[in-house]
Specification:
The protein is α/β, with parallel strands linked by helices. Helix content is 36%, strand content 22%. The strands form 4 sheets. Strands 1, 2, 3, 4, 5, 6 and 7 form a 7-stranded mixed sheet that branches. Strand 20 and strand 21 form a beta hairpin. It starts with 12 loop residues before the first strand and ends with a helix.
Length: 452
């Protein structure tokens, strides 16, 4: 029996190719996906990794063998696949390993309308079928196999985004974009074409070996080139996309990173101007500034666990207009509740180009507190360390604890959250306070307990 425990994660499939999975396994996933979703048609896209065309083609064969008509949109970003799923009303599969190293690949799957597929919404059933078929043999093809056709949706995707955020009237902006040799190099030229933007393109060549740096802007070392180019050229801002271009990170005119929490607050204010009184979702480790700005803008903030399936579930339940995470995932009701870094970037461009000040000045109103960033600690006993932190802070005057996701400890002028990694022996610490000295003190205090 194939052991899928190392490649089927909480919300997707991800592993080393071909050591952990290959085309025959991808074909079984395609067949199982159709069985579980009961789909008579699906849409498939893939990124620029060398293994992606072969794996996506195998998935298509498996799906067609179970009777589904397959639309292949070819090279695309993950949010472009979500657009196809939403606009065509089809379940979808995106072949990508996002920001992971070159030897990895994976599948992000969704139901029709870009609805998420997670452990409790189909992924566990897909895994069980693949394991059974690996052990017993693949099922016989159905009497009437489906078709496989090609359809390019890039132009429609760009038009949809430009219909949501009008950039035609902004002042001219010079923007540096680092695509990291990922799918931003495919989507940005089409989305930005004809707009009042002077585009300085960095690493737009599609290359799944990532010759310049990892396509993971969350790691500070991977935006160093972007920061330097912004400073050297006097650009108004810089944008960095991850490998599958569903996340976007921003640096200001000084080359300084802009917190994803500040971007969340900025976009929330703009969305609330369009949809007064709307609900905005934020995960529990975004800044205090996010719910503050939402309330100041007349909206209703809702706090949730970390992870896109939780955000999407809350958006569907509450009818939220927007949601944001500390990891630079941004979700929009107008985009089928799915995440799209491109749309968030367009909001930033619209806000900046709609006034005369620099980006650093614009975002200062949304970046109100001192934060540690996420600090990882390797521990032998995650549960024991979390219990030790709870014991240390429980009962302190003016301090509250909650366990919505890991442990969050909150006081009047600071808070911190500690969460266990699902895949590694790590505890992740995030601290925020009203001033840097307090943030540093609480960080050191918490780390002393975490690291024993």
């Amino acid at each position: 029996m194939t052991d899928l425990s190392q490649i089927v994660k909480a919300y997707d499939v991800r592993g080393v190719v071909p050591a952990q999975w290959d085309a025959p396994l991808a074909e079984l996933f395609g067949a199982a996906f159709v069985e579980v979703t009961a789909a008579d048609a699906i849409v498939i896209g893939h990124d620029m990794r060398p293994s992606s065309p072969g794996l996506s083609g195998a998935f298509a064969r498996g799906a067609a063998a179970r009777g589904a008509d397959v639309t292949q949109i070819g090279l695309c970003s993950t949010d472009e696949l979500y657009f196809a799923s939403g606009s065509l009303g089809l379940p979808g599969a995106m072949f990508t390993a996002s920001h992971n190293p070159a030897q990895y690949n994976g599948i992000k799957m969704c139901r029709a309308g870009a609805a998420p597929v997670g452990q409790d919404t189909g992924l566990a059933d897909i895994r069980a079928l693949v394991e059974r078929w690996s052990d017993e043999g693949a099922p016989e093809p159905v009497a009437g196999p489906g078709t496989v056709t090609r359809h390019d949706v890039l132009g429609d995707y760009a038009a949809h985004l430009r219909g949501l955020v009008d950039l035609s009237g902004i002042r001219p902006l010079k923007v540096v974009v680092d695509a990291g040799n990922g799918m931003g190099g495919h989507t940005v030229p089409t989305v930005f074409a004809g707009l009042p933007l002077e585009l300085d393109a960095m690493y737009f060549e599609l290359d799944g070996s990532f010759p310049n740096h990892e396509a993971n802007p969350l790691d500070p070392k991977n935006i160093v080139d972007l920061q330097a180019r912004v400073r050297e050229t006097g650009a108004d801002l810089g944008l960095a996309f991850d490998g599958d271009a569903d996340r976007c990170f921003v640096v200001d005119e000084n080359g300084d990173p802009v917190s994803p929490s500040a971007i969340t607050a900025l976009v929330a204010a703009r969305e609330l101007a369009k949809h007064p009184g709307g609900t905005v979702i934020h995960n529990l480790i975004t800044s205090w500034s996010v719910p503050e700005v939402v309330r100041e803008s007349g909206g209703e903030p809702v706090r949730t666990r970390v992870g896109h399936s939780f955000i999407k579930e809350e958006m569907a339940t509450t009818g939220a207009i927007f949601g944001g995470e500390h990891s630079a995932h941004y979700y929009f009701r107008d985009f089928w509740n799915a995440d799209t870094g491109m749309l968030a970037a367009m909001h930033v461009l619209a806000a900046l180009g709609g006034q005369q000040g620099p980006l650093s000045q614009l975002v200062a109103q949304y970046d109100r507190y001192a934060a540690s960033g996420e600090i990882n600690s390797t521990v032998d006993d995650q549960t024991g360390r979390l219990a030790a932190i709870k014991t240390a802070y429980q009962g302190r005057d003016g301090v509250t604890l909650d366990e919505l996701d890991g442990l969050t400890v909150t006081a009047d002028d600071w808070w911190f959250n500690v969460r266990a990694s699902n895949t590694e022996p790590l505890l992740r610490l995030n601290v925020e306070a009203r001033d840097t000295a307090t943030a540093d003190r609480i960080r050191d205090e918490a780390l002393a307990i975490i690291r024993g």
